[in-house]
Hints:
- The structure is a single chain.
- By secondary structure, this protein is α/β, with parallel strands linked by helices.
- It has one domain (4-216): Rossmann fold.
- It has six helices and eight strands; from the N terminus they run βββαβααβαββαβα.
- The chain has helices at 45-56, 69-78, 85-101, 117-128, 166-178, 200-216, and strands spanning 4-13, 16-25, 31-35, 60-64, 110-115, 133-139, 157-162, 183-188.
- An eight-stranded mixed sheet has the order 1-2-4-3-5-6-7-8, sandwiched between helices.
- Helix 1 links the parallel strand 3 (31-35) and strand 4.
- Helix 1 (45-56) crosses helix 6 and helix 3 (85-101) packs across helix 4.
- The chain starts with a strand and ends in a 10-residue tail after the last helix.
Amino acid sequence: xxxxxxxxxxxxxxxxxxxxxxxxxxxxxxxxxxxxxxxxxxxxxxxxxxxxxxxxxxxxxxxxxxxxxxxxxxxxxxxxxxxxxxxxxxxxxxxxxxxxxxxxxxxxxxxxxxxxxxxxxxxxxxxxxxxxxxxxxxxxxxxxxxxxxxxxxxxxxxxxxxxxxxxxxxxxxxxxxxxxxxxxxxxxxxxxxxxxxxxxxxxxxxxxxxxxxxxxxxxxxxxxxx
Length: 226
């Protein structure tokens, strides 16, 4: 396992100040920005698990909060901000700008990993930066909330959905038709929306790592486990 440097970073996105956890394995071949959704944050255990798997594949990761502390409290009461896809997308884009300006990450090709409504935000941000973003992965995502821009997404896009998450499967199948670039829908058998079943999240992590390693470039001698 390569040595991994870790730091808490502060990003400015418009008038908001956001915190993120930046982890860079030695010799990283790309970096993945995580876009959380549905009331989650950079502390999401599921996304942290996936991030660790990506790091084992030689990919740097940035897990950031897309809402300020005050906005998180508001969202807990109203559940509205998690569906403000354009706000979340602007925050993801601001994180991309920060990575481009940071000397430790400016040379790394960028990918997005989005969960739930964060997947829609990642796709909107990717549509706005078609030449910059190298790959997108959605976990249990709501790409249907970004239908109006999906035809502008050039990044190879992998949609991962649980086999028992029937409404979201249909949403992802619809979104797949709007994507014009390289695309794939993977359905994890017997998994529900949060992939809590034994082996489900491990499968998500393997699929995501393979996709990002292929499209961003990273270490090839990774272990077979997630």
